[in-house]
Design goal:
The protein is of the alpha/beta class. The protein contains 10 helices and 14 strands. The protein has a single domain, classed as Acetylglutamate kinase-like (Carbamate kinase, 3-Layer(aba) Sandwich). Helix content is about 40%, strand content about 20%.
Length: about 290
C-alpha cells in the first residue's frame, strides 16, 4: 500500500471540514446491519466511523438488527424460520430467542466494541424505559411482530447530551400487555429518526445502493428525488428487499428528516465517505 504524505492527510481533513461544520450538533440515525455486522474488519471500521462522528459533535444514534445470529440460534434449537412479506413470524419461543440475541449478545457486543475503541456507548432496547412502544401488526399472520407507534426521545436525548452513543436493539413493548414485540430494525430506525428530528437516516445494507441495472455497479443512482420512487418501483428497478427500505426512507422524509441514505456496509468506512466527501458512496434520497 502506498503511504500518503502529510500534505495528503491534511487535504483529507480540510476537505471534510465543511461537512463536519454542517453536521455538528445535528442528529444522524444509523441502521447497522448486513455483512458489516458479521465481518470483523468491517465491524471495526463501522465502529471507528461512529466514534469519529460522535467526536466531531454529531449526535449519533445506532439501531441494529441481528437476523443471522437469530437464525443461527433458532437452527441450533431445531426451530424453523418462517417469513411473511419479509417479516419473521414470531411466536413466543421465537420472541424469547429474538430478545436474547438482540438485547443481549448483539447489543452488548456492539457496545463493547465502541468502548474498546475509545468511544462511550449505552446499549438499550425498546423495552427499556418504554423507549419503543408498538402495536401488533397482524397477530394471526405474524404473531409477536409489531410496528413502532411512539418513541421516548427523552431517554435518547439524555444519553446523547451525556456524550453517549445510544445503541438500540429493535425489540419494542406492547403498552397494553407489556409483551415484547419483534420490530423491523429499518422501520424502527426511521421512526426514531423522525421522533428525534434527525438530519439524516442512513441504512447500511449489502448492496451498493439503488442500481438501475443490478448487474452493473456503475449504474448506481447517487441522488434519488423522493417523487421518483414510485416510477422506479413500477419499472422494477426498485424491487424485492429494497422496497421496504425505500418505504422507510419515504416515511422519514415525509415526516421531516432532511435526507435518507442507502449505503454499502461491505465497503470499509462507508459512513465517513458518504458523509464527508462530495462524491459519497451510496444512494441519497431527498
Amino acid at each position: 500500500m502506498k503511504e500518503i504524505s502529510n500534505n495528503e492527510r491534511a487535504d483529507v481533513l480540510v476537505h471534510a471540514l465543511p461537512y463536519i461544520q454542517q453536521f455538528q450538533g445535528k442528529t444522524i440515525v444509523v441502521k447497522y446491519g448486513g455483512n458489516a455486522m458479521i465481518n470483523e474488519g468491517l465491524k471495526s471500521a463501522v465502529i471507528q466511523d461512529v466514534i469519529l462522528m460522535s467526536c466531531v459533535g454529531i449526535r449519533t444514534v445506532m439501531v441494529h438488527g441481528g437476523g443471522p445470529e437469530i437464525e443461527s440460534l433458532l437452527r441450533s434449537v431445531g426451530k424453523d424460520s418462517r417469513f411473511v412479506n419479509g417479516l419473521r413470524y414470531t411466536d413466543e419461543e421465537t420472541m424469547e430467542i429474538v430478545q436474547m440475541v438482540l438485547c443481549g449478545k448483539v447489543n452488548k457486543n456492539i457496545v463493547s466494541l465502541i468502548e474498546r475503541q475509545g468511544g462511550r456507548a449505552m446499549g438499550i432496547c425498546g423495552i427499556d424505559g418504554g423507549l419503543l412502544k408498538a402495536r401488533r401488526i397482524d397477530e394471526t399472520a405474524l404473531g409477536l411482530v409489531g410496528e413502532v407507534e411512539t418513541v421516548n426521545t427523552a431517554i435518547l436525548n439524555t444519553l446523547i447530551d451525556g456524550n453517549m452513543i445510544p445503541v438500540i436493539s429493535s425489540v419494542a413493548v406492547e403498552e397494553a400487555t407489556g409483551c415484547s414485540l419483534n420490530v423491523n430494525a429499518d422501520t424502527a430506525a426511521a421512526k426514531i429518526a423522525v421522533s428525534l428530528g434527525a438530519e439524516k437516516l442512513i441504512l447500511m445494507t449489502d448492496v451498493h445502493g439503488i442500481l438501475r441495472d443490478v448487474n452493473d455497479s456503475d449504474s448506481l443512482i447517487k441522488i434519488l428525488p423522493k417523487d421518483q420512487i414510485a416510477s422506479l418501483k413500477n419499472v422494477g428497478i426498485i424491487n424485492k428487499g429494497m422496497i421496504p427500505k425505500l418505504d422507510c426512507c419515504s416515511f422519514a422524509l415525509d415526516a421531516g428528516v432532511r435526507r435518507a441514505h442507502i449505503i454499502d456496509g461491505r465497503i470499509p468506512h462507508a459512513l465517513l465517505v458518504e458523509l464527508f466527501t462530495d462524491e459519497g458512496i451510496g444512494t441519497m434520497i431527498e
